[in-house]
Structure formats: C-alpha cells, structure tokens
Amino acid sequence: MSDISRRKFLQTTSASALLFFSGLNNTHAAPAKAYPSKKIGNIRDLKPNEPLAFNYPDEQSPCLLVKVDNETIGGVGPQKNVVSFSTLCTHMGCPLTYSKGRLVCKCHYSMFDVSRNGQTYQGLASQWVAQIVLRLDAGTGNIYAEGVEGLIYGRIGNLKLS
Ligand code: FES
C-alpha cells in the first residue's frame, strides 16, 4: 500500500469510527428531564405579603409563593405581583424568610429583591436566589410552578437525576 492510499484508508476508517460511536452515543443518551407542572395555590386565596410555602421541583427544595405590593419581574396576575422563589440562601443554604418585598437570610444577613428576579443586594451571598417560573390559569385562578430560573443552592442541576 502506498503512502497516499494508506493515509486515505486511515482517514476513512477514522471518520467511520467517529460516526459509529457518535451514533451509539445518541442511541443511549438519556432523554432530557422536563420540569413538572405543579399546582401551588389559587390567586384568589393569596393575601398581600403572606407567603405560602411549598416544595418544587421536588420535596427537598423549599420555596414560597407571595403576592407583593408592586409589579415584579416574572410575576403573574393582573398586577404582575405574584412571584415565587427558592427559600435556600445562595451563600450557604440557610432558610430565607419573606419580609417587606425581600427574602432575608438570618445566618449572614443577605437580602434578595423579589421584585427583581431575586437579585442579591446585601450580605455575603453573591448569587441571585432561584426564581420559580409560574403560570396562571386565568379561568380558575390556579397558579402552577413550571420551571426554575437560576440554580437552587447545593445542586449541580435543579432536577435530580433518578
Ligand atoms: S447562608 Fe445566607 S448569608 Fe450566609
């Protein structure tokens, strides 16, 4: 076999092997997990600044739903003032509590603005707190959690691998 034909042979077999193994890889790739849709409350039952606790996207992830006094980014409802967030502080995972438009961490005094996507503006946390994506059914008033923006504290992905 000449040098040119040997090189041509190696190029052809390498390309074939690459296609074969990439095909195998696709065949065995796990399907991407989708966020569940979970009913978490009804807009008619919410009282201003009284948060409702729930877990999402699984039972190990505490969150809250709250109707605040002003329009928010990502809020639902006629005033866009119903929002939802993880209640795990992004610094070290301490529980967050709601107070006057903010999520507050009593461990190291971080604060997050619920009107601005959970942006941190005080304390040791440098990451914004994860915001829960909401959907309002205008007919029934039911509110559904249907996704997460940002990473929930302590996770490498918001959806745990099963
Ligand atoms: S755990 Fe919240 S600021 Fe440290």
Structure summary:
The chain is an alpha+beta fold and 162 residues long.
Write the layout of secondary structure elements.
Blueprint: H1 3-28, E1 38-42, E2 52-55, E3 62-67, E4 82-86, E5 96-99, E6 102-105, E7 111-113, E8 119-122, E9 131-136, E10 142-149
Antiparallel strand pairs: 1-10, 2-3, 3-4, 5-6, 6-7, 7-8, 9-10
The structure holds FE2/S2 (inorganic) cluster.
The site of FE2/S2 (inorganic) cluster has 11 residues, from loops.
Any key phrases for this structure?
162 residues; Rieske Iron-sulfur Protein; 2 domains; four-stranded antiparallel sheet; 1 helix; binds FE2/S2 (inorganic) cluster
Main beta sheet: 4 strands, antiparallel
Portion in helices: 10-25%
- C-alpha Rg (nearest Å): 23 Å
Q: What's the CATH H-level superfamily name of the largest domain? A: Rieske [2Fe-2S] iron-sulphur domain
Strand runs, count: 10
Structural class by SSE content: alpha+beta
Please report which band the strand proportion falls in: under 5%, 5-15%, 15-25%, 25-35%, 35-45% or over 45%: 25-35%
Series of H and E elements: HEEEEEEEEEE
Q: CA-to-CA gap between the ends?
A: 52 Å
The CATH class of the largest domain is identified as Mainly Beta
CA-based shape:
globular
CATH-scheme architecture of the largest domain: 3-layer Sandwich
Average pLDDT across residues? 87
Stretches where pLDDT falls below 50 for ≥5 residues?
9-27
Which strand order spans the largest sheet, edge to edge or round the barrel? 5-6-7-8
How many individual domains?
2
Bound small-molecule species: FE2/S2 (inorganic) cluster
